[in-house]
Amino acid sequence: MNTAPVKVSVIIVSFNTREILRNCLQSIRRAYFGFSHEIIVIDNNSIDGSAEMVKHEFPHAILVENDHNNLFSKANNQGAAIAQGEYLLLLNSDTLVENGNIEKLAGLLDTSSGNIACAGPVVLNENRSQQSAGYPLPSIQERISAVFHLNRLLPRFASRIILPKGTPGIYDETHRTGWVSGCCMLVRSDVYRMLGGLNEGLEFYGEEPEFCMRLEQNGFETWLVQDASIIHLGGQSSGHEQASFLQDPNGSLRRYAALQQYTVGLRQSIIMSRIVLAAAWLKYALSGNRRREYFKTAISHEQAVIAYMKKLLSGK
Fold first, then answer.
1. Is the Cα dihedral 302, 140, 181, 152 positive or negative?
2. Confidence (pLDDT) at 289
3. Using the 8-state DSSP alphabet, how is residue 122 labeled?
4. When you count CB atoms within 10 A of the terminal residue's CB, does the N or C end of the chain come out lower?
5. Cα 206 to Cα 249: distance, rounded to the nearest angstrom
6. Is-above-0.85 flag for pTM?
7. Domain 8-133+171-237 maps to which CATH number in 2.40.160.20, 3.40.50.1820, 3.30.450.90, 3.90.550.10?
């Protein structure tokens, strides 16, 4: 029997994703892990036989069966509470792991000082086009950079000095970033627990930037490992019920406001939205008729966001 200490605890949250969960677990089985690991599946009260499939086809996985849907943060925190690994790998059920990539994430944490607490790979679509490669943390500077596409206008050397760390399109190597996608995120388990894990006050939106902001506020760093990758099918792990949950327009504003409150605060968020609104008006004025409807919609959306934030600030 292998008694080696567990290096990585893989935590997968599933809600009615039996087939893609099976594919994810099979991809882990096929991938070579050069260290001891455990797999923890948190089933959020699925009704499609997901839990039964795990029991029968992956008996070595640790299965936690919830009697209701705990969503993303709380379910991951459940897994972290029983995990034995030095590192926690938060992994969506709609991902496919390929040989050697998780080792690259663990290798960065192994060879760095303890201040690097979180690492993520380049996220690929199923056709292997790039989906994401890290993002800057939300801020006024980040919003100005994004809406005016400063990463395209400035020379790369200037972008690396001026723009927020993690700005897309200015790196070709492993680098420090603001936050990485929660579909595949490796975190030091002691740091994860010290910070209280993912924020359970967020309802299936913005958990990763909020967590990575807390990391930074506590003196830790998040890095993007450029030569590591994961395939993310995109959105399928949410299931139909959570997809409907996210499409609720009133809920969308509530969830966005919650993220702002936990990160930059409502006052700064209003300033950031006004920057986006000003950019939308400028683009509307300069665009041809074909694009004006798009920017008109963007303007209406940002005005609604600002009105909602003001209402929250006034306490009405």
1. positive
2. 83
3. E
4. N
5. 16
6. yes
7. 3.90.550.10
